[in-house]
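Much of our argument rests on the idea that a fold can be written as discrete symbols. This step matters because it turns folding into a mapping between discrete strings. The record that follows shows the chain in one-letter code together with its fold in token form.
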Amino acid sequence: MQGEMEDGYSAAYITGVGVVSPIGVGCKVFWSSLLANKSGVGPITLFDARDYEVRIAAQCWDFDPKDFMNRKATQRMDRFAQLGLAAAKLALEDANAWGELESNAKRVGLILGSGIGGVASMEDTMYTIDTKGPVRANPFAVTRIMPNSAAAQISIQLGVQGPSVTPALACACGTDAIGLGYDLIRRGDAEMVVCGAAEATITPVIVAGFIAMRAMSRNNADPEAACRPYDKDHAGFVIGEGSGVVILESAESAERRGAEPYAKITGLGRTTDAYNVADPDPEGRGILRAMQIALKNAGVEGERVGYINPHGTGTVAGDGPESQAMWAINPDVTVSATKSMLGHSLGATGAIETAICALAIKEKTIPPMRNLEVLAEDCAALDYVVGKPRRAQGLEVALCTNLAVGGHNVALALERV
């Protein structure tokens, strides 16, 4: 492996992937479901949504916290932290890295982000106060609600003793978290980093808030067709939940352990629109600059990018500018917007989508997207992979891009090892 790039930037190697998602738990099941174009969207069951204008979501249907932690631990964690701990354990298992964590805990870092944190626990606590009084509040309420509670629980349960950070960059949080892990590796602050994000925001307050913003699809009658990135009938995103965690390592660590990486991260770009708290820049300038910065850092020309996993939420405000930005990077690039299957898991989405890019490079296969039938007029005519996966024998470079509420943009460049 070559750890040092020609321009002085170090690579970080992805040696393990852990995913808890609406279409499967664990890397193998998740990837198989993704290639099968399986939808994870259905009627909300996590709360009574009968009076809501939107009654669909992408829940982690097959997730049972008892598969990953004991009952006592479950009771002390919000659902987002449970998802995060599960994904972290799955990633460490996939990387065969338990021994490294046990023997070298002070050189293992942890970046586990969340856009909102323990919102379900916040809502539950307020309900208890309103119905039973403040003296009945759960003594673990604060440690369940705080956004760093997932990182705290993971470090305690797994014994991580290196640097830890909880980024909260809304919908770009997961990509940013992996970017922060990349920063730790290239600075030499850690030899291995457990990094990603978790989110569990299918709750009454969050769903009602996004309904009020008119940001979500109201296609309750056909949930699997509701999220339609770049399609002429795109009408909003479908809220989801989940967690994605990857194990990043330095070249030296991966070589010493004999690890077989999925891919390497070689570039990171961060920008801010400074335009609007809810809508992205209508010219797509922020996300374009983020991709350009990531590629410049990686020393890669745009025409070498073979695959982009975009933000692709299915909103009118976001799809057009983002697609035009991708066209400016490489008009021949292949694109698949996997939120059409997974929904939008807010802070976790970029971590899951980075994992998808790594899997695509490793397996030389572009996963498909759903529901793109007629391209919207303002969307660029890119090579969208719809319905069926596509073999990509020559795939060498992929980009994961995310736009966040607030105008934050993050892009990661991944390359074949």
